[in-house]
Amino acid sequence: MCIAAACGENVILNNIVPKHVETLTAKFSELGVNVDVRDERIRINNNAPYQFVDIKTLVYPGFATDLQQPITPLLFMANGPSFVTDTIYPERFKHVEELKRMGANIEVDEGTATIKPSTLHGAEVYASDLRAGACLIIAGLIAEGVTTIYNVKHIYRGYTDIVEHLKALGADIWTETV
């Protein structure tokens, strides 16, 4: 869903259980992402620039800590500073240094990231884990230029056929063996 919100136009996701993504769709609505939920289908349109928001991770049914990294690139497209506080894993911000390599204006202090509008540019970055990898893919898709992500084994562990799925959405993405 975060990929669709970052760079998709009229992306339809099928076989979705809307209750399972209520907190994310609510935050998308607050951001200004165009989200249309019907039965087991969600239609998403990128409406950037987005509104700045505050996000606080909580236990279920709150905003999932697993979503704080993938939603972060959307916040660079906002019209003001956003804040992400991870109350579950306050040290889960390894992706921040990689985003800074891409020109992100982001700082972390005591479990809260302050995210300011930024134009990202391609860079060589390292996925430290699955969710950081998702964040870096999304950041790479909205960045100007080429982004190279290393340690993609983390990404492949959780996202089957991610490259093919992104190509189907029109992404200019490929893999190389080194």
Automatic annotation (TrEMBL):
Membrane-spanning parts: none
Domain (Enolpyruvate transferase) ranges: 2-166
Highest taxon of source: Bacteria
EC number(s) recorded for this UniProt protein: 2.5.1.7
Assigned keywords, A-Z: Cell cycle, Cell division, Cell shape, Cell wall biogenesis/degradation, Cytoplasm, Peptidoglycan synthesis, Pyruvate, Transferase
Gene Ontology MF terms: UDP-N-acetylglucosamine 1-carboxyvinyltransferase activity
GO biological process: cell division; cell wall organization; peptidoglycan biosynthetic process; regulation of cell shape
Species per Swiss-Prot/TrEMBL record: Staphylococcus aureus
Pfam family, one: EPSP_synthase
Record's protein name: UDP-N-acetylglucosamine 1-carboxyvinyltransferase
Principal localisation: cytoplasm
Intracellular or extracellular location(s): Cytoplasm
Cytoplasm recorded as keyword: yes
GO annotation, cellular component aspect: cytoplasm
Keyword Cell wall biogenesis/degradation applies: yes
